[in-house]
Amino acid sequence: MSTGTTTSPYVAVLRTETRLFGREPGILFWGLAFPSILLVILGSIPSFREADPGLGGLRLIDIYVPVLVLVSVITTSLQTLPPVLTGYRERGILRRMSATPVRPSALLLAQVVLAGGAALASIVLCLTIGRLVFGVRLPSQPLGYALTLVLTAAAALALGALITAVARTAKIASAIGTVAYFPALFTAGVWVPVQAMPDVMARIVTFTPFGAAAEALGQAAAGDWPAWSHLGVLAGWAAVLSAAAVRWFRWE
Question: Which residues form the ABC transmembrane type-2 domain (predicted)?
């Protein structure tokens, strides 16, 4: 009689994917280190550390910490998830898994967990550097901040899954992910914070998932509960993108 314990197929796949994930220096750099490095670079600019009356007395670095938190989520969702999953499908790995006790959904779940974990680690690093190095206050409304991040991650991962669904090869997935990446960064406020955009542009941007997320995170960081309109935009995008990804996703 065997006394060994049986490892869940999902746990086994997660362990394997975690080892493979750790062997990708590009993924580790862009997903984990890049947002924090960019934060240090921006924080080194003297004008970013000066209070701006036009921003309600906030400093630009105060505004950019939530923006770079978004960059962490966007990068892992659009630059990591689509090419990896599409590559597995392209090489027939998902099709072969469908004939084994380990279902392809285990691989999908493992990739979502890894992407979410990488984003969380990057977020914690950004918040820590912002607090310890530049004196940026931690979110004064942590529950609202956490809820916004959960909805943002759901929308971003759904967008990554949708790219995986429509891309036939890993190269195409990378190309589509890159095309989507830069508009996502713009709406998140990387080039111009949403709070500093002209009124018309800001209103338009807040109807996008990452524009709404930028505003909601900014509100939560300042101690206010995020506006339900922004949370509703995030939830709506997450639902629509998830439904589209499920509709068009294929295992082979």
Answer: 26-252
